[in-house]
Design a protein that fits this description.
With about 450 residues, the protein is mainly alpha-helical. It has 18 helices and no strands. It folds into two domains: about 230 residues, no CATH class; about 200 residues, no CATH class. It is globular. It is a multi-pass membrane protein.
């Protein structure tokens, strides 16, 4: 009965997590589809560039805080329930300090960034975006606490509902009146603020008031230091990953015309769409892989690895064919102003299968078996190589050069991680015929 209960909980949480990621991903695509229809290319490129720069400030403001809070909440809920109040209070203090530093940095650095990027109006958008930074970091931190309490439903419901409302607001607004980039930025930031207020309110009334109190005198210096220590390696890994991916837009902003930024973002949004479900799936198999690894059940871990590879390869192959064969058809439906991005999707298409396998291998197996260091090294080396080749290829080739770099560097990094897994964990890439009992075996946790 315990096995069935755990299996049901994991499956249910996976569905909730998948709902949240799908809402965020599809919401972003729909909103960008609206924007590409109503904004001229320079304004849309400035929108993309501003949010990419805000992404750096967000990384420094969060720096692994939400994953850290999830870890310690789950740990303390079992080993030290009396410390939960101090943990949450200390986490909120950490959040406030990080957000304050990020906002002050935006105020100081925004004019410098605008001058360097030669993008008039960028300072105003970045300052408005400080609302987004505070809201997003707070939303993710409270979401981390809820994940530690095994409650995936609250953030998922809020994300889905608020995203739907936001889409309706944009649709009505764009249909009835002219729009300005500044106004859109304000509204987008306010919707993130609404999500933060809602998720914190529900957390407070359902958990904080009932199970633990939040008072400033509960701040715990030892917990604060523990949070910082745990955040640092995660934060640096995320920073490396930014240089491994989103830095392309910043380099395009320096060396290429606005249309290249717009084309890049459109292609990247579509490319990331099929990868969204992997995060939910990885969150399911990670604890299972950890249990099996430390129980030294190698045959069973090979079974999970092979089954996971098979499950990932099937949908990724379908999307690869679509992106390579009919990208113009897809773009005509969603982003008709940027059908020229079809060549970018064709460049990325061969990477999709390998990317899916690599994400499962890295997130589901390398990290879960105690090898996060090698993943951090691979990401850091990939980040350096990505920046170098971007600087070489983007000036002459624009977005095409950025995606050639992405395809080559990511492929090499994934192949190396798979080689490392084969040598250290002795796992081989094998495909399995799927059936219901095999699928059930992944969602079952034996005690």
């Amino acid at each position: 009965m315990k096995t069935n209960s755990d299996s049901s909980l994991i499956a249910r949480n996976t569905i909730w997590r998948l709902l949240q990621l799908t809402a965020l991903g599809l919401g972003s695509i729909v909103i960008n589809a609206f924007l590409t229809r109503r904004l001229p290319t320079p304004d849309y490129a400035l929108w993309v560039l501003a949010f990419s720069i805000l992404g750096i400030f967000y990384l420094f403001a969060d720096f692994g805080l939400n994953q850290t809070m999830a870890k310690y909440t789950a740990e303390y809920s079992i080993t030290a329930k009396d410390k939960l109040s101090a943990l949450v209070t200390t986490g909120l203090v950490n959040l406030g300090a990080n957000a304050l530093i990020a906002c002050l940095s935006i105020l100081i650095l925004s004019p410098v960034i605008e001058h360097f990027m030669n993008q008039p109006g960028l300072t105003r958008l970045l300052i408005i975006g400080s609302i987004f930074i505070i809201s997003r970091v707070g939303m993710e931190m409270v979401g981390g606490i809820l994940r530690g309490l095994h409650d995936f439903a609250i953030p998922s419901k809020i994300s889905a509902v608020v995203t739907c409302v936001e889409i309706v607001v944009y649709y009505i607004w764009f249909s009835l009146s002219d729009i300005s980039l500044t106004a859109i930025f304000v509204v987008r930031s306010l919707f993130f603020l609404i999500q933060f207020i809602l998720i914190y309110s529900l957390f407070y009334f359902q958990y904080a008031r009932k199970y633990f109190s939040i008072r400033i005198n509960l701040f715990d210096k030892e917990i604060f230091i523990s949070i910082i220590k745990y955040c640092l390696p995660i934060g640096f890994s995320f920073l490396s990953y930014y240089l491994y991916t989103k830095v392309d837009i910043l380099i395009l902003g320096i060396f290429s015309p606005d249309e290249e930024i717009a084309r890049y973002n459109v292609a990247d949004l579509l490319f990331q769409l099929p990868l969204m479900g992997l995060a939910a799936y990885i969150s399911v198999i990670s604890p299972k892989v950890t249990n099996v690894f430390y129980a030294k059940q190698h045959e069973r871990m090979q079974h999970i690895f092979s089954l996971s590879i098979t499950l990932v390869t099937i949908p990724m192959t379908l999307f690869t064919v679509l992106f390579f064969a009919v990208p113009e058809f897809i773009l005509n439906i969603i982003f008709p102003q940027y059908v020229s991005a079809s060549v970018l999707l064709r460049i990325l298409a061969p990477l999709l299968i390998l990317k899916g396998i690599g994400q499962v291998a890295a997130g589901g197996f390398l990290v879960s078996t105690g090898h996060p260091r090698i993943l951090a090294i691979i990401t850091a080396v990939g980040a350096v190589m990505n920046v170098i080749f971007d600087l070489l290829l983007i000036p002459p080739f624009g977005a095409e050069g950025a995606f050639v770099t992405t395809t080559v560097i990511h492929s090499l990094a994934i192949l190396f991680s798979l080689y490392y897994i084969s040598k250290t964990l002795h796992l081989k890439i094998r495909f399995k015929k799927l059936n219901s009992s095999m699928l059930k075996s992944i969602f079952t946790v034996k005690q």
